[in-house]
Amino acid sequence: MDQAKEEMGIKGFTVQFSQNPKNIEKRGDVLVFDSPLSNGNNLYDTKNGVFTAPRTGVYSFYMSGIVATDDLSGRSDLVIEKTDGKPLQKVFLRSRGDITVYSQGSFHVRCKLNRGEQVHVRHLGGDLGLKGESETTFSGVLEHVYADPFVK
Predict the structure, then answer these.
(1) What pLDDT digit, counting tens, does each position of 11-56 carry?
(2) What domain range is 123 assigned to?
């Protein structure tokens, strides 16, 4: 793609799980949102769950999730982080077993990313899965491009 077309392209995504509920197998797993609602220039990889920044700039990420349980007590702890392991934001979802309740949590973070840096959502711990389809989503968008060639 030539640079002029890339400049006009969408620099964002919104993805969800196609499976409902989405089981989380083990601590440390990267969540792979496999059903894109929008995915400009395929910046979010629906096979490995990683977003790659196309440009150096300020990005905004948002995730909203609902714990998938009807009668279990438990939790699901998530983090949005750079693939180098630097955490950007965490969310802790809890459920009580004595009532039917769907615990919902969300987080939003703005951060500077350099071109080629990567971000994903990872499971920190807990034993509950997440509701799928439109009930758990992950989004990201480029808000501001650094035009200064000296900014790295």
Answers:
(1) 789 999 887 766 766 677 888 999 999 998 899 999 999 999 999 9
(2) 3-145
